Amino acid sequence: MKVERIETYLLEQTLDTPFYFSQFEFRSRQVCIVKVIAADGTYGWGEGYGPATVVKAGVEFLTPLVLGEDPLQVEAIWNKMRLRALDYARRGVLVAAISAIDIALWDLRGKLMGQPVSVLLGGRRRERVKVYATGMYFTETEDLAGKLADEAQRYAAQGFRALKMKVGLGVETDVKHVRAARAAIGDDLQLMVDANHAYSLSEALRFARQVEELDIGFFEEPVSPEDYDGYRELRQRTSIPIAGGECEYLLAGFRQLLSQRCVDIAQPDICGAGGLTETKRIAALAAAFQTNVIPHSWGTGIAFAAGLHLVSTLDIVPGRLRMPEAMLEMDRSENALREKLTAPKFQLEDGRVAVPRAPGLGVDVDPDALAHFARVD
Ligand code: CA
Fold it and tell me: Which pLDDT tens digit goes with each residue over 355-370?
């Protein structure tokens, strides 16, 4: 079997309510998805994380390397793409383009072999994956603390057992918001915070000290992704677990983060850091550093399904009889594209989502939704 064709789609949705986080505002959501088609018509879907137009250009650059290759030999194709990109892109969006093609190849390989991706990755340790709700972004409102608290309660009512809120507007404001959210959901639910690298080290320390008593599950991207020293020092000086890695790429990038003992939790994005092929290796490297992986996930059902399959294969470190649950991020911010693009729909049950059992990723793209959201340049 050979890869015969690769199609890229740039999808866009204008948001009803623009929202922002510590770095910039979203008025629309864009994503580039990829369809890799084999000679017999079997196809796989993939997705890249990052600016969609740039991901699309990257996929088109890499396409000639993949056409004619055997889609069962995913790792060999991955290496070919990687070597072609190495001189120009040791991190960044061209790696996301590799990731998109790689995920599509895993989906295609699974369909050709009649097996779910999780089985091909080494085997499912769990049939359902605990998910945490990502939301609680900032919007223009008079009572942002109240709005965030209401949203936290809504996720709790939906059945989430863990949720993550944005911080990074300024230490005093952020502390007020986190206190409001914790008061709204009580003590039983996990609450995490994400600064999207908005803080200096001293601000991150000041914030951490003030919210330590609120039982924070992890503090994500506290400082600049370039500031490995800052990560390490913060981690030594707070009891809150430190998380990071959504801006990190490939094994070489995660080696920096892990060998310098920057994080308690590594968060590769499968659609950015190198696809399923490389994220599986990153998880192995993290395990060697006694660090657990909770993948970053902020895309469509393709990205989320890839996350479910990978997380289903992770071994928690250290092993013990009663282990903490493996977890995956589940974006809940407004995104009709995410909700409508793929089928079947993911169901939240007892704070968990079932890992698909169908061959490949176990999700397909709805042709009507694809036509609706596709942007024609
Ligand atoms: Ca984040």
Answer: 999 999 999 999 999 9
Distance 70 CA to ligand 1 centre (A): 35
Give residue 185 CA to ligand 1 midpoint distance, Å: 21
The b-or-e profile of 279-298 (16+ CB within 10 A means b, else e) is bbbbbebbbebebbbbbbbb
Q: Is the dihedral of CA 230, 236, 240, 244 positive or negative?
A: positive
The model's pLDDT over 13-62, given as tens digits with 9 standing for 90+, comes to: 999 999 999 999 999 999 999 999 999 999 999 999 999 999 999 999 99
State the catalytic residue, choosing from 177, 296, 309, 372: 296
- 371: in domain: no
Do 72 and 146 reside in the same domain of the chain? Answer: no
Ligand 1 centroid – CA 206 distance (Å):
20
User: Are 102 and 125 in a shared domain?
Assistant: no
Token reading at 352: 């968990």
- Position 374 in a domain: no
Q: Degrees (nearest 5) of the Cα angle 179, 181, 184?
A: 110
What predicted TM-score, i.e. pTM, was given to this entire model? 0.98
309: annotated active-site residue? no
219 Cα to the center of ligand 1, angstroms: 10
Best CA proximity match to 207, nearest among 262, 165, 168, 166: 168
375 or 289, greater pLDDT = 289
Q: How far apart are CA 243 and CA 191, in angstroms?
A: 13
94 and 170 within one domain: no
Q: For ligand 1, a single-atom ion, which residues have Cβ within 5 Å?
A: 194
Give the Å distance between the CA of 189 and the centre of ligand 1.
19
